[in-house]
Amino acid sequence: MANMLISSxxxxxLVTDLEKSKRYYRDVLGCEVTDWWVIRDGFTGLGLKLLQxxxxxxxxxxxxxxxxxxxxxxxxxxxxxxxxxxxxxxxKGNGANIVIEPWIDPDNGPWxxxxxxxxxxxxxxxxxxNKGKQE
Length: 135
Hints:
- This protein is of the alpha/beta class.
- The longest helix has 13 residues, at about 80-95.
- It has one domain: 2,3-Dihydroxybiphenyl 1,2-Dioxygenase, domain 1 (Roll), CATH 3.10.180.10.
- It is globular, with a radius of gyration of 16 Å.
- The protein has helices at about 20-25, 80-95, and strands at about 10-15, 30-35, 40, 45-50, 75, 95-105, 110-115, 125-130.
- The chain has two helices and eight strands; from the N terminus they run E-H-E-E-E-E-H-E-E-E.
- The strands form two sheets. The protein has a four-stranded mixed sheet, covered by helices on one side. Strands 5-8-7-6 form a four-stranded mixed sheet, with helices on one face.
- InterPro entries: Glyas_Bleomycin-R_OHBP_Dase (IPR029068), Glyas_Fos-R_dOase_dom (IPR004360), VOC_core (IPR037523).
């Protein structure tokens, strides 16, 4: 049997208002939005499937892990800090709710990241190393 590789995946999110969520992901995060998916930077970038929840109580963002303040639904890796900073500036300029401002962990990479929450409280983090560049 030949080795088959997964080429992409989509995280499924139940949302309180499908049309508002579609507008948010299109207008604030710059995603391509269709009736089937929400993607940015192709299917190997940010990929979501938004589904209308039966009731608002069905929308349940992840709870924080032990020792954390925020629960995450999705983590997006970015190639370098220049790209990460551009995303941050774009999202913030479009009105995103930034819940973790950009910060650097010097002991892991060093690693830089930030996070935002969508209109249903789902948290998406963005981060990465700087490909060997010294900051």
